[in-house]
Write a structure and sequence with these properties.
Layout lengths: L2 E4 L4 E8 L5 E8 L13 E4 L6 H6 L3 H7 L4 E4 L18 H13 L1 H6 L8 H4 L6 E6 L1 H12 L4 E7 L12 H9 L6 H11 L16 E6 L8 H6 L4 E6 L11 H11 L2
Parallel strand pairs: 4-5, 4-6, 6-7, 7-8, 8-9
Antiparallel strand pairs: 1-2, 2-3, 3-5
Helix pairs in contact: 7-8
Length: 272
Amino acid sequence: MPESHQSPGAVLTRHQISASDGTPLSIVVATPPPAARRAEGLPPILAVHGFASSAASGWGRTGHFDALTRAGRTVVALDLRGHGRSGKPHRAEAYGLEQVLDDIRTVASDIDLLTSDSGMTGMTKSRAWAPSATIDVLGYSLGARLSWTIASRGLVPVRRMVLGGFDGRPLFEGVDEERLDALAAGVPGNDRVALRFLVEGLAGTGATAAESAVPDVPTLVVAGDKDALAARAAEFAAGLPRGEFLSVAGRNHINAVPSQTFRRGAVAFLGR
């Protein structure tokens, strides 16, 4: 049975499914409170967090769940393997790009069932969202890089996407392992061994702006103006067929996520 509780702006339900290799994947579904008006005709949002984060910390504590559900949206956010309440294998081969992408695709394929079981009272699956339809995507840092690869390969049908802290580079380029380990150590409960294996399995992979097919998807690129890891984000956005760029003044790679500018920008862009 899924666990459920309500925050000031969202009803949160946690589910668990199995990845194709048997690794447990934990998922948070955020739906509007019962009195809120649901957004008509808009699909669920698949949210993919950054490195050493989780669905709860990356989207819940930063205010994104509340902002999006107040706008009537439903958000499905997975804990990537190695993170949060998902499985944390201690071997690099468990974190290969194809496996991690398959995890995301598995969640996307189950999104109609997950949302129908999470606060969709009085709505049928067909009224809420058709599983054959497109979804919206919200990703940050590692999650943005994975989301870009998913969209560029056409693995998930994407209507619109918001990519934060990303400028088209391969995974973990420009960040040394010591800095990544320090980031992991700064979050209580992180399994630093699992995250080191994740870095080993994913480093240098993922579709890049230069090497991959550019998805013809409306895309909002968001980055703090002090974010060295996304320093070319404006240029990246300008090169997309339907790209837009949103700069977050005075913010870096870490503190851009909870900014009101980011939250409002994502709500507005995904609401079109």
